[in-house]
Specification:
about 180 residues, mainly alpha, single chain
């Protein structure tokens, strides 16, 4: 159903856009309001997200879930709005709030990206996940992992490479 929605958008079908709007408006609003604690920013971000969705409809990927692409857009727009607000506060008040706003933006960016990474790692096959965690979380070398799991160092390298490739997909959505 979701690839059909993306294809419908790419074919300029307004009824498909309306279906997506009805399905995701409330979810996006709740997500942004939870992150910002601001109804005004949530309304602005959701509106701008759907405008952006329509403008970028031809660039949507059929290989990435629509909700992931939509929430990625919303997050980028939210961060842009928070940056604008931080600049406004900095220029208007020259107050100490500006560094706080900047640190909030960075915290939101890092926490959300980390959550997506952790979820993607959890979805990897058991052996690939184990190899990645031994390398990245436990600091084992490729040779040590190979000996521990009775596989070749090249296999270890391949597993880690595949996990990193999967993580790059999320990086593009959040950068």
């Amino acid at each position: 159903m979701l690839p059909d929605l993306i294809n419908g958008l790419k074919e300029d079908k307004l009824e498909v856009f309306n279906i997506i709007y009805e399905r995701y408006h409330g979810k996006l609003y709740s997500f942004i309001k939870l992150k910002t604690q601001s109804e005004f920013i949530a309304e602005e971000v959701v509106q701008l997200t759907f405008i952006t969705l329509w403008e970028r409809r031809l660039k949507l990927s059929e290989k990435v879930d629509l909700d992931l692409q939509l929430f990625g857009m919303a997050k980028q727009i939210m961060l842009g709005e928070l940056r604008k607000e931080a600049r406004r506060i900095k220029h208007n008040e020259n107050a100490m709030i500006s560094p706080l706003a900047e640190s909030l933006i960075k915290a939101v960016e890092n926490r959300d990206l980390l959550k997506h990474f952790e979820r993607e790692i959890e979805n990897q096959p058991r052996m690939r996940r184990m190899v990645y965690e031994l390398s990245r979380k436990n600091g084992f070398s490729h040779q040590e992992i190979a000996e521990l799991l009775s596989i070749s160092p090249k296999t270890v390298e391949n597993h880690i490479s595949k996990v990193l490739s999967a993580l790059k997909q999320y990086m593009y959505l959040f950068l």
